[in-house]
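Q: Convert this sequence to structure tokens.
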Amino acid sequence: MGENAMLNEWYPVSLFSHTKKGIYKTALMGEPIEVSAAAGGDAVVTTSAGRALPVIVRFGHVWSSLGVPDKDLFSIPEADQPGRRFVEVGVVRVRCSPLRAVENFLDIAHFPFVHTDILGAEPHTEVQNYKAEIRDVEDEVWATQVKFYQPQAAKSASGGITTEYMYRVPAPTCSVLYKTCPPRPSEWDVITLFVQPLAEDLCDVWPWMALFDDETSMTDLIHFQQTIFLQDRSILENQIPRLLPLDPGMEIPTRADMTSVAYRRWLKRHNYTYGAQLVAQ
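A:
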């Protein structure tokens, strides 16, 4: 049932720029698919059996679904904001549940230990009180009032600052992070995690960013974000169990895990269980 509940969702399957290079073979929830461009340049996604799948091109990515989505892809207003630089980071394959990949993105407490001297550092390890909730009107998970000291919050940062965060989960395998923008304190940098579920325990992660940064080269921006996620990959691929536990008794959360708790509760509410472990084994 969990697989069926997620069949009608939108998922990233390629960068749109890759469609100009020929046929891109990949998979979605265990189904082999191909991404290509039609004669007019529009993106086309088909199964290996030739069935045409629905397509949306947004945020520089091609999105598709094995089912029939009953809603549009979520919006990111900053994607239409003049002056921002849009950074296509590429793809990182991770041997973990797609839901695990999203939950790791929501975790603040690991910053000093996994991203040492970049997103965190000892002795600044305490996660301050913040707010996590499921917003019923938007039907999204949000975490706000998140603050954490970071030695280098972004490639554009020149020194350590206390960074403010907001996390948003608008879809089961996607998350949007809003964080302090060092060059423009009145704005937010936007960093997203778009996760493509290849299988229940394997995913492709497509980070994307919308930044105010006129100084850093595109290569350095991409390298910085790839460095962060490659540090995460080593942790994700060693987590046990490999699937994301949804039974509250399987793992004991701490105060710092409020966003993860809300995310798991939201997944269960919608029966989004592809990549999840429902009972202790």
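Residues 77-277 form a domain with the Naphthalene 1,2-dioxygenase Alpha Subunit; Chain A, domain 1 fold (CATH 3.90.380.10).
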